[in-house]
Amino acid sequence: MAGHSKWANIKRQKARVDAKKGKTFTQLSRAIIVAARNGLPDPDGNFQLRTAIEKAKSAGIPNENIERAIAKGAGTYNDDDSILEEIRYEGYGIGGVAVLIEALTDNRNRTAADIRAAFSKNGGNLGETGCVSWMFEQKGVIVIEGELEEDSLLEVCLNADAQSYEIIDEEDYQGAEIFTSVETLEQVNSFFQNQGFNVKETELRWIPNNYIEINDPEQTKFLLRLMDALESLDDVQNVTANFDILD
Predict the structure, then answer these.
(1) Does 23 map to a domain?
(2) C-alpha gyration radius of the chain
(3) What is the dihedral of CA 48, 8, 159, 171, to 10 degrees?
(4) What CATH number is associated with residue 224?
(5) Which molecular function GO terms apply here (predicted)?
(6) Buried b or exposed e, range 101-116, using 16+ CB within 10 angstroms
(7) 13-22, 23-32, 102-111, 201-210: which has the minimum mean pLDDT?
(8) How far apart are alpha carbons 18 and 141 in whole angstroms?
(9) Residue 172, domain extent
(10) Which tens digit of pLDDT belongs to each residue from 210-231?
(11) Tell me, what's the pLDDT at 54?
(12) How many C-beta neighbours within 10 Å does residue 16 have?
């Protein structure tokens, strides 16, 4: 919708403007742990792990920290007794906005308390499991940087069996986001790389099936503060919401 921004767009812009809003070392290291736990501890044979390592290196995490995180995920690191759990939290922001949170924690009571506090301080409330997840669908997302010709992009998307794309044409940024099924993400990513596209990032993302339009400045303020508060928590890996606000 012209003149509006969804949370994914706002998040991308905020990350470019303020690097401090990016993922912390703890969050990036935990993403490596999850990837190594869910597949092979070898990035050559584990696409999720390879992507997590690339993000960590881009953020300046030392190789020894990356290797330690891989070992923790593989269960071969003996100097750490903490057990990390993957938990998904769900809730509502002001205006009935659905919020989906993916966390990785060694203390679920602490994490739940922190997330509940973020909601309550910003006009929302933490809900029960399943209260909003039905409004989202998990997809693969490939972020491409650079000026693109839409006809050529469409042709490559069709040949790569991608589901859809969204052109990003902003004053200080040009590129596109390519959407795929979870199962075909690695295949489509390889296709785009082989075609010479500048693939900046590849990830799994929860995509809302519908959006709530927010036009009230006060509600906008509370929603953005809520998202910042949630993303600042070390235990939180990803946050997605279904609001669409006036720029």
Answers:
(1) yes
(2) 18
(3) -120
(4) 3.30.70.980
(5) DNA binding
(6) bbbbbeeeeebbebbe
(7) 13-22
(8) 22
(9) 135-208
(10) 999 999 999 999 999 999 999 8
(11) 85
(12) 12
One domain, residues 158 and 215:
no
Distance CA 95, CA 219 (A): 7
> What does pTM read for this prediction?
0.81
22, 65: one domain: yes
Q: In what order do the strands lie in the sheet with 85-92?
A: 125-126, 85-92, 98-105, 236-241
Claim to verify: residue 199 and residue 217 sit in the same structural domain: no
Q: If you write DSSP's letter for every residue of 185-230 in order, what string do you get?
A: HHHHHHHHHHTT-EEEEEEEEEEESS-EEE--HHHHHHHHHHHHHH
3-class secondary structure, 132? coil
Q: 139 with 178, same domain?
A: yes
| 168 and 158 within one domain | yes
**H helices within 122-196, ranges in order?**
150-160, 185-194
Structure tokens, 147: 């000026």
Q: Is 215 helix (H, G, I), strand (E, B) or coil?
A: coil
Query: In this structure, what are the phi and psi dihedrals at residue 110, rounded to the nearest 5 degrees?
Result: -65, -45
Residue 52 confidence class, pLDDT cut points 50, 70, 90: confident
Q: Which of 240, 6, 227 is nearest to 136 (CA)?
A: 240
For residue 136, give the nearest of 242, 244, 11, 6 by alpha carbon: 242
Count: domains in the chain:
3
Contact 205, 8 (CB under 8 A): yes
Verify that 32 and 63 share a domain, yes or no: yes
pLDDT, tens digit, 9 for 90 and up, residues 14-41? 665 544 444 578 888 888 888 888 778 8
Residues 143 and 197 placed together within one structural domain of the fold: yes
DSSP 95: G
Q: Give residue 123's identity as a one-letter amino acid code.
A: G
What's the half-sphere exposure (Cβ side, CA atoms, 13 Å) at 53? Answer: 22
